[in-house]
Specification:
The protein is an all-alpha fold. Helices cover 82% and strands 0% of the residues. The protein is built from five helices and no strands. Helix 2 (16-31) runs parallel beside helix 5, helix 3 packs across helix 4 and helix 4 (49-56) runs antiparallel to helix 5.
Length: 80
């Protein structure tokens, strides 16, 4: 994922707190781009969260997947 690669160049991911910083920045970038956010949610719907987390291939991926789960729940609640 392009965001992951760009973030790794700027932020280290050795410790859990560093991974959380990378995840927070990735989440902020996704949330600030409604089109990207929708694409991420749709990709997860099609391929599943486990596949998406594997595609991220970064220790920060678990934090990002947690955010995506939250977005899906909100989307589901607003659709029903």
């Amino acid at each position: 994922m392009f965001t992951n690669q760009l973030l790794e160049q700027t932020y280290p991911t050795t410790t859990t707190s560093q991974q959380m910083v990378v995840a927070a920045e990735a989440i902020n970038r996704i949330e600030s781009n409604p089109t990207l956010k929708k694409r991420v949610i749709n990709a997860v719907k099609e391929g599943g969260l486990a596949a998406f987390e594997k595609a991220i291939d970064n220790p920060a991926g678990a934090f990002i997947v947690g955010a995506i789960k939250g977005w899906q729940e909100v989307e589901f609640r607003t659709a029903n």
